[in-house]
Amino acid sequence: MAEEKGQTTGPDQRAPAPGPGVPALALEAVHAAYGPYRALFGVSLAVPPGGGVALIGPNGAGKSTVARVASGLVVPSAGRVLLDGEDVTGRPAHEIARRGLVHVPEGRAVFSSLSVEENLVLSFAARVGRRGVGAALERAYAAFPVLAERRRQEAGTLSGGQQRVLSLAKVLAVAPRCLVVDELSLGLAPVMVDAVYEGLAAARAAGTAVLVVEQHVERALGVVDDAVVLAQGRVTWRGPADQAQAAVGLALTGGGGDPAESGAEG
Ligand SMILES: Nc1ncnc2c1ncn2[C@@H]1O[C@H](COP(=O)(O)OP(=O)(O)OP(=O)(O)O)[C@@H](O)[C@H]1O
Ligand SMILES: [Mg+2]
């Protein structure tokens, strides 16, 4: 990969604000594979600046793969990824992160042997510098009181739901340009689901563009404008979130095609 000449690689590589109509995040006809296993077949979607899109579909549809493509963890075999109109296809994940795209992956993304507060401090220091950490901590604890109560607890001993809240708090105290969240509410107690969705709504209010990957669609649809339905690596429906329920019902009950064809797991 060619080194760019004459460009510093400081912490803020966000492009200047693009013109109107340019999505914060766009995937164009993306194909992706894991070795011989092909997971995405020409997926296109766009999240406008400050906009919200839910990506929904059954297990194995390729939702997490789309999230990984957006954040640079999976490099598409064809197609393009654009941030604010700029082609970042094939750029390393850390560079895409520096450009303002934050990916909260499935599962637990915390340092388990560090305390809750140490996790937050590490993340905030990297994004706002030491001097911004105090204010960011205050915002995080105000938004997620469960973390304030447990600030000294080792993150690895939190419940799965609390770890998910911590993953979200790590990124939300400083509004990213674009946030990609994967199955945030999976396995969470209802009160935790409320907490993470309040966090997402707050991020949107702060101008963050959000791509929400969810299997449990109702909450996701409530916090976005548009929905994209994925089945077996292909977009099968897209449109306004409030019209998605019917389409989603079909997709989730297997109406999207024959799962045997793509080597679905048991
Ligand atoms: N690391 C990997 N190696 C090989 N195949 C993979 C890998 N990750 C995902 N896959 C396969 O790619 C397909 C899409 O997976 P992906 O995780 O993107 O689906 P998903 O929609 O997020 O599913 P879920 O709802 O279960 O999270 C699946 O068939 C999966 O088995
Ligand atoms: Mg997934």
From TrEMBL:
Keywords: Amino-acid transport, ATP-binding, Nucleotide-binding, Transport. Residues 25-257 form the ABC transporter domain. One of its GO terms (molecular function) is ATP binding. It comes from Aciditerrimonas ferrireducens. The keyword ATP-binding applies. This is ABC transporter ATP-binding protein. InterPro entries: AAA+_ATPase (IPR003593), ABC_transporter-like_ATP-bd (IPR003439), ABC_transporter-like_CS (IPR017871), BCAA_Transport_ATP-bd_LivF (IPR052156), P-loop_NTPase (IPR027417). The lineage of its organism: Bacteria, Bacillati, Actinomycetota, Acidimicrobiia, Acidimicrobiales. It comes from the Bacteria. Belongs to the ABC transporter superfamily.
